[in-house]
Design goal:
Layout: H1 2-20, H2 24-42, H3 44-62, H4 73-91, H5 99-119, H6 130-139, H7 144-158, H8 169-231, H9 236-250, E1 255-263, E2 266-273, H10 277-283, H11 291-298, E3 302-304, H12 314-319, E4 325-333, E5 336-345, H13 353-392, E6 396-401, E7 406-409, H14 411-417, H15 428-433, E8 439-441, H16 446-455, E9 460-466, E10 472-482, E11 488-497, H17 499-534, H18 543-574, E12 582-584, H19 586-596, H20 598-604, E13 607-612, E14 619-621, H21 623-639, E15 646-654, E16 657-664, H22 687-692, H23 698-708, E17 713-718, E18 722-730
Parallel strand pairs: 13-15
Antiparallel strand pairs: 1-2, 1-5, 3-4, 4-5, 6-7, 6-11, 8-9, 9-10, 10-11, 12-14, 15-16, 16-18, 17-18
Helix pairs in contact: 3-4, 4-5, 5-6, 5-7, 6-7, 6-8, 7-8, 8-9, 8-13, 9-13, 17-18, 18-23, 21-23
Amino acid sequence: MSSTGEEKTDQRNISRFSIKGWPESIISIERKCEPKIKRIIASKRFIALFFWLTIIFGILLFVLPFEERTHTPVFFLFVGLSILLLPAYLLFPYQDHHPYLFFTLMMATNALIAVTVYLTGGSKSHFFLLYMAVIIFSTTYFGILETALLAAITSAIYFAPILYETIDFETFKNMAFTTAIFIILTLCGSFIINKAKEQEEEKGIITELLRETDYKRQELATLYSSSLKLASSLDYNEISEILLSYTKDLIPAEKVLLLVDLGDSRLEVIKSMGVSPREEMSLLDKMDYNPVFLAADAVLPVIVNSRKEDPRFDPFFHRNPEVGSFISVPLFASSRTIGVICCASCKEHLFNDEHARLLLTLASQTAVAIEKSMLYRKTLDDKMKIEAIINSLKDGIMVIDNQTNLILANPSIKEILGIGPQDFGTPIESLFEKLTTPLLLKDQSLEDILVKVLVDGETARGDAIIESDPAQYFQIISVPLKDQSDSSIGAVFLMHDITDLAKLDRLKNDFISIVSHELKTPLTSIRGFVRLINAERAGPISEKQRHYLEIVEKQAVGLTKLINDLLDISRIESGMIGVVLQPLSLEGIIDNIVFQMANLASEKDVEIITQLEEGLPMIYADRDRIDQVIINLLDNAIKFTDPGGRVTISARCANGSCLVEITDTGEGIPQSELPHIFDKFYQVESTMTRQRGGIGLGLPICKELIKAHGGEIWVRSALGKGTTFSFTLPLYREESFTESIRPQGEAIT
């Protein structure tokens, strides 16, 4: 067993060695010749030649040795048929279908076989087997019916020996059996040949499908590669180069042009390949039925394959004699044509719908890429313009994200806050903390501003001071940045330098203070002398004179109040007004003020109602300033309430503070006026306001005084229903009491 295995192994090794031992040149020749050899062996011409040589070989082997047969007429017939059949087999057009000619050739072959059988012994000859070769050979050319007919005739010829010799029954029986074999062979051969033909046809179909699949695969690979390159490019020239390159790969054209639509039916060549400037001008000639403009206007591919295809294009071909075929496809994107891609060739009937489809696919990819490139360039230009505008502004601008990290700052704010490259990406809280010169925010802290802008999504305004020498004053405006879903993504800070305005405002306040003081002294003298004259210290006066003196005193009182308001607002803005906090009874304050205002209310026929909560705790406030606030609000309520109306003043505890509300039944304030009601010198535009006079300082003073106490003040109103002013005051707590509560200037910061 082991020896046998070793022998087999050795044989395999010897065989493997013998093949590997051949020279590479011989193996290469063998591989190259193998397909050719197979095609030669499988051809009908080779089979016919081999058949003829078999007959000749048989004659040489079996006939020529018998000299008596070479002198018979049948031998010369054999020689003649052999000579005729050889060129007939070699020259017969097997690739075409000539059934009658082939049938004649087969009958001549049967005659040659019959002669050969006669010369080689008649019924005893074995050359009758060549009849089978005729039948098999005919199945490769004929169908089943023609082959059956030829088989029947061949079978009849096979019985030819009956004509020239005596055949016994046994021989006849064998010949009849052979005829049946001929018929079976005919059927089997036809079946095999038909199956072979079907397989060949299927193989051809599969080969064609594979070829088309490979072609489609190459197309898809090319289109995919082009789409990747076009999608990754934002450069206009690079996109044009990519388009022309892939167009040359996909379309069999010698000339390629890319044109861009300038509007108003104007096209401009931005890139071309194989096209001279003169040809470009000719192709862009605005004539009727120019396929370039037709594709742009109709937004459809246009194919013209010859001059004779459509006479309407004769002017175009006459203007461009070097063009034989032409195809143009629009570049369509965002519901408009942005250009045209054109291909031209000197050959006629070159382009088809498949080329149009490929070019349309490539054009659509290019259109999107060009549009993206144009959008990118426009965005880049806009960005550069915006950056130039921001950088040229004298006001400081910085942008933060929703994590308060600095992401953008213009040169002005870099200089103001000392921002360097290392500060980008850091929170602005740390940026403000490391400032060498402190930045003080008035009214609200940086944390409050960030919460209002980033969390609440509201615009924040405030003032800031940089305590340099000299000091710098800024107005800070913070605006939220939001995305399409209205979510906060950051904020923009604007620092507007108002140092010059602050200086002017300070000069104005100084001027108002000086003028007010200068006016207050003579007004005091005027009021004193009016009282002396009215008391008849300087002699008796008439009733008319007394009436005039009362008018003078009333105007002097009003002017004194105006001067006091101007002084108060000036002190408030300069931080020179203070509040002395102490525990007070709000109930006593309100009762005293209502008693003072009773005469004014009765003159207007207005009823004052007090609604105070029982057991109202003491407040922690400045008596004079709270009197000033309540008197101002109550005076306004009485003045703006029609006769027969009422004014209600109420007080109660709410949320740890004391809430005071003064409500009237006057005409009310329009909603559009409410946001400005506490602005300086602002007055609601109405007939009653003009009748009552005033310069719009009372409410701003009230607001600042309430803020100095740590409270809030607001207003609610409805036209025709009245107005309610509300403010809060801190409640007294023993642990918060001190003798010197708050120095001047501390309340207003």
